[in-house]
Write a structure and sequence with these properties.
The chain has 303 residues and is of the alpha/beta class. The protein contains twelve helices and nine strands. It has a seven-stranded mixed sheet, sandwiched between helices. A two-stranded antiparallel sheet has the order 6-7.
Length: 303
Amino acid sequence: MSESYHIPVLLRETIELLDIRPGGTYVDLTFGGGGHSRAILERLGPEGRLWGFDQDRETRANVPDDRRFRFIEGNFRFMRGLLREAGVTQVDGVLADLGVSSHHFDSAARGFSFRADAPLDMRMNRAGKLTAAQVVNDYETGRLIEILRDYGEFDKPHKIAGRIVEARRSAPITTTGELVGVARPLIPRADENRWLSRLFQALRIEVNGEMEALRMALEQSLRVLRPGGRLAVISYHSLEDRLVKNFMRAGNFEGRAEKDFYGRASTPWETVTRKPVVPTLEETGRNPRSRSAKLRVASKWSE
């Protein structure tokens, strides 16, 4: 595994907080370059097992030659069903490092980055049917506004959607460069990179159904974890972090814990990290893409 594929973020902190048992069974929902998986394998004994998920077929090249590791090519939204097919019903820990790998950003042809002109694709799974070009050219104005507001967190999404709809009447917007050109009059000079990152983030989340996949994976983690098992999630933007925080706090995505007869909050989780763990200055200096990372960890209450 080349570190150029993806430098694992918050590696030491994640592995320590997972509290790995040598004979336990663990799941890496975002295998990618295999950095976190290899670190987990170093902590596992001969009887330990690790299952790695990734929907991108290219990640198979990073699979370690280790009999304790099993790779599942599939979206982690189907974690529970795919594990059951493999004969696994309970595990001791689940890890998810969300977001896009360095490999995807650096592979210009995949269309994830605004720094190179490439087809508007953005599919994590190349077998997927929906592309960013289809979103930009085929979606109705109202739906574009919703995506830009909800996934890009823009204050005035209607202006961006209006520019896109006006431009596509003349000719389809098919490349990342064309999209940047269409949006150019709206981009603030002092915040260009962050603004474009949010635009591309919004489209990527829609293309890959990332928020729904995260909700499904979080709910399923509660069902597959043994009592005392740990869930560790690294998020990279406020939308993801809010879902993770609420779920770990209350067992639902609204963050409202149910109360028992005596009015005490009832939650299936015990918080391990009271505040999110963030990268050190040393790590962000070594890997600037880690700057927005937040790690949260919770343990399933023992019954």
